[in-house]
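Example S7 (structure tokens).
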């Protein structure tokens, strides 16, 4: 029987590795797979962080002195009973209540402020003289607008400007309706927006925003107020 021939077997890939190549250890492999962790945060103490101080409130605009030939004329005539100021470009006279009727008439007759644009009021309940009354006047010939302001206490009245400007009629009625300020000599001093018999004056700051004359609603409309 002939001797069986032997075929050489090729070397495996494992046999081709160089002898010097090291097999990675378990420690090296674990270190390479480890995820870097952020440093530990200190435990919360339970105390709230100190509150930051509120930023200082910026100062608002303030009235400035108003000077003009018109101002000089009336300062010379009325002295300390009159002050002339300008606020955000709006020129106005602050006049003592006792001088207001004469002063308004002079503005119309001598300086052609022949149009009474508006009459309104502002309520400051913490002041002794709680109300500012403001007349906004315009002169067509001068193309100039000014304001006249005076202060009165609650319950006081002022002379009507209807004899000076006919437009003051309804304007003064609105001031009465909303603020309760009366004008002596007005030809028809009654409410103009709210019905007669309504209690209270809605633009006073002590009149609640949801306040309503529930009695008037019940009597005149026959329903319960929804507020």
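Recovered sequence:
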């Amino acid at each position: 029987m002939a001797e069986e021939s032997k075929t050489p077997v090729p070397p495996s890939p494992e046999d081709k590795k160089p002898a010097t190549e090291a097999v990675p250890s378990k420690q090296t492999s674990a270190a390479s797979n480890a995820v870097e962790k952020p440093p530990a945060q200190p435990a919360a103490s339970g105390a709230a962080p100190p509150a930051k101080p509120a930023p200082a409130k910026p100062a608002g605009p303030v009235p400035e002195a108003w000077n003009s030939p018109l101002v000089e004329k009336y300062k010379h005539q009325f002295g300390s009973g009159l002050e002339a100021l300008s606020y955000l470009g709006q020129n106005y006279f602050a006049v003592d209540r006792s001088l207001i009727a004469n002063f308004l008439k002079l503005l119309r007759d001598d300086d052609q402020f022949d149009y009474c644009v508006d009459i309104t009021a502002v309520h400051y309940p913490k002041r002794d003289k709680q109300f500012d009354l403001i007349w906004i006047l315009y002169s067509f010939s001068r193309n100039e607008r000014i304001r006249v302001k005076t202060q009165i206490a609650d319950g006081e009245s002022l002379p009507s400007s209807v004899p000076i400007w006919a437009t003051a009629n309804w304007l003064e009625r609105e001031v009465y309706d909303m603020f309760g300020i009366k004008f002596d000599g007005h030809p028809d001093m009654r409410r103009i927006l709210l019905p007669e018999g309504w209690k209270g004056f809605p633009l006073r700051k002590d009149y609640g925003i949801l306040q309503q004359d529930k009695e008037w609603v019940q009597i005149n409309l026959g329903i319960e107020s929804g507020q």
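Notes on this example. The radius of gyration is 43 Å.
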